[in-house]
Amino acid sequence: MHFAPTKPQDVADGNWLPTSPGQNYRLIFRFYGAKGEVIHGEYFPPAIKNS
Predict the structure, then answer these.
(1) What's the whole-model pTM score?
(2) What is the pLDDT of residues 32-47, one digit of tens each?
(3) Within 13 A of 28's CA, how many CA atoms are on the CB side?
(4) How far apart are CA 28 and CA 25, in angstroms?
(5) Alpha-carbon gap, residue 34 to 51, rounded angstroms
(6) Which secondary structure element, helix H or strand E, spans residue 46, and what is its range?
């Protein structure tokens, strides 16, 4: 997934999420039917990398 104001040329349309230029972006995860580590607050998604 790529989060950017303009779509990078080498990224498929389905892998790009447009964001507002010059503003921070907050990503929120919502889990439906969560189990195990998620329920116990022990799951943490991988860090987001700036490329």
Answers:
(1) 0.58
(2) 999 999 999 999 988 8
(3) 1
(4) 10
(5) 30
(6) none
